[in-house]
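Researcher: I'm preparing a figure for a lab meeting and need a structural model of a single chain. I don't have an experimental structure, so a prediction will have to do for now. The sequence is pasted below. Please return the structure as tokens so I can convert it later.
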Amino acid sequence: LTLSLAAVWPATDTPLRHTRPRARVWSLVIPDPVLESRFTAAAFRSAYTPLVIFLAAWTAIHLILAAVYPAVRDTGVLTALAGAALAVARWRANRMADQQRARKLFGAA
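Model: Understood. Here is the structure written out token by token.
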């Protein structure tokens, strides 16, 4: 059982090969390390915009809740600060030249 990654993710198609790269279905391991590096970097970059938009909305909602409901002010502000910190960390990781290192650093955070 093999899955063609090029059909699912265009960044995995490589002009150096005449056959499409295959991944192991159950483990999703890509046998070619260069191809896996390109695939994970492309996936990391493509997740940037939706994540930052989500974290910005998360921060705004929790700040509004903190302003409207005094009982949850401390928790709302702390949650909003955590969302803002994650958005800034992801923004900084997106600007790094080495996207594999950025992916590992942001994943550890």
